[in-house]
Design a protein that fits this description.
The protein is mostly helical. It has eleven helices and no strands. The longest helix has 30 residues, at 211-240.
């Protein structure tokens, strides 16, 4: 019988930190109305992490079913190619699938409880988040296999983290948080974009037409810069309309890191050592961006 630790590790917990940061950013967005209590805020963070963990597990299950992870000999562990828990027979595919839906069921159930205690404006936000957690990997949507729609799905999923937590804090729909939440979402979309590059051949064989599969070395780097620029543009809109503090411009210090990563992708896409470096640099710089965005809001207060 598998231990609780095994199930925890199967969720790829190292990748959950960025979601926690998204929650903190949402709670730090300025507001002058209702403020939720600490218990509900902590519970909301927990169910957001449940949703991300469930999505990771569903992704592993679906990539096992379509053969992408099974036939991926070019993965760069532990960043790409899934958790390998099914392929290494640590957990069965059914166990992973059942655990995924257990976490998503908890997300929905506890999410409804939070809505009943705060505002039902959270309901559509939560539904979009759960829909993206399921639809990114699962049939019939399988947005991960549909080029630009996969990028949009990731950006939308993580934008709900920020706008959802901001709405929880305010007790109403935080429409002022939409631009900065999408900025955060686009940064996360770039993580998936870069991490898909080593999986190009396996994904293509499995019928997954990701941006990386579609454009390969010709313009993935350009997509990366375009998504980064879109994120900064949305953040700037949030600053100019007064939704977030001007001190959050400290995230501009991350730009050299994004440019360096784009250069690595442009020049050395077919060199595994350089590609691993690009993945690592991108992960670090996106996390650093999120931390600085959060700190910028706190320091302005």
């Amino acid at each position: 019988m598998s231990s609780p630790k095994t199930f925890l590790l199967a969720t790829r917990p190292n990748f959950l930190l960025i979601t926690l940061l998204g929650c903190l950013i949402g709670l730090a967005i300025p507001g002058n109305t209702y403020t939720s209590n600490s218990f509900l805020s902590a519970l909301a963070i927990c169910i957001t992490l449940f949703a991300h963990a469930g999505a990771n597990l569903l992704n592993d299950y679906c990539d096992h079913r379509n053969g992408s992870d099974e036939n991926n000999s070019e993965r760069i562990s532990p960043y790409t190619g899934g958790s390998r828990f099914i392929q290494n027979k640590i957990l069965s595919a059914q166990q992973v699938h059942t655990f995924a839906w257990t976490l998503l069921f908890l997300t929905i159930t506890l999410g409804l409880y939070i809505c009943s205690q705060t505002t039902w404006a959270l309901l559509p936000i939560g539904l979009i988040g759960v829909l993206m957690a399921w639809g990114y990997s699962s049939a019939p949507l399988q947005l991960m296999s549909r080029g630009i729609w996969g990028v949009i799905a990731i950006a939308l999923a993580w934008s709900t983290v920020v706008v959802g937590m901001a709405s929880l804090k305010l007790g109403q729909f935080a429409d002022n948080a939409i631009p900065v939440s999408m900025a955060f979402g686009f940064m996360l979309a770039n993580v998936l974009l870069v991490n898909q590059i080593p999986d190009i051949n396996a994904d293509k064989a499995a019928g997954k037409i990701t941006i990386a599969v579609k454009y390969r070395s010709t313009s993935v780097w350009a997509w990366y810069l375009l998504i980064s620029l879109s994120a900064y543009t949305l953040q700037l809109i949030s600053i100019l309309n007064g939704s977030i503090p001007s001190f959050s411009v400290i995230t501009l210090t991350c730009i050299p890191g994004f440019i360096y990563c784009a250069i690595l992708l442009h020049r050395d896409l077919n060199k595994s050592g350089r590609l691993k470096l690009a993945i690592q640099v991108n992960l670090i710089i996106v996390h650093f961006y999120a931390i600085l965005l959060w700190i910028g809001m706190l320091l302005q207060k």
